[in-house]
Amino acid sequence: MADRAHGALASVELERLDNGTAVAVGTQLGVGTTLGNCATLYPGVELGDGCVVLDGAVIGRIPISNGTTTRAIQSVYGRVIVGAGSIIGANAVLYTDLRIGERVLIGDLASIREGCVIGDGVILGRGVMALYNCTVGSFSRIQDQAHLVGGITIEEHVFIGMGVVTTNDNDVYLRRFGIRTGGSLEPRGPMIRRLAVVGAGATILPGVEIGEGALVGAGAVVTRDVAPWTVVTGVPARPARVIPEELRQAALDGARAVERGAALADDPRVPVELAQELARELARDQ
What we know:
The protein has about 290 residues and is of the alpha/beta class. Helix content is about 15%, strand content about 25%. Among the domains are: about 1-140, Hexapeptide repeat proteins (UDP N-Acetylglucosamine Acyltransferase, domain 1, 3 Solenoid), CATH 2.160.10; about 245-285.
């Protein structure tokens, strides 16, 4: 446990830059990548072209157990792949074994644990905590201070409001003390389907599925699955109304416009200024 971590840390060869940043030997830096002051890049990090890493960020950190954690921890360096044009905020901490898409924005003080997969164009706000093995689909937006529990799956174009809490374990007492009552005690993170919206301060309980395009009201406590295109509110959350067909279509059209704009930005045949203007036109047309 701690001994393995000591060994892994001791094996790292770091090169110090003039601005105080430490970069592990063998790190791959894309063309035009900018490294801020006093950042640390551990072994296995691969940054795409045009990435920005701001002051104090840590990328590729290994998890370390003190010996009393319920979940097994492997203190081994894996790969961290960060797509082109992504931005890593000041004092953000990205663990090892991550796949981060292109043009991802990770806010200051955010923390992303090992095993996470983050799609293209995602925004993770200031202080977001993403625990182990999270999946966040392309173009989703996770607002400041949200807590993404281990094993959660968030599909594309989802909006998670500030301070949302997600959970994955109804049997924490049984698991922590090794009590067996039959059946699986493995944690189950929530599933949040594409285009869903979760309002500020809501709490999502383990294994719950939020359907496509559903809306969870601010402060709600969701204990059961939410049907697609349904608004739920309250404690515990209960259906309040169904989202009208015209709003559903507007959401779908808006998502397609975002994807078309991103595709234009990626096309080397289209000048950057023209791609940006076409994307704005597409958004205005919706």
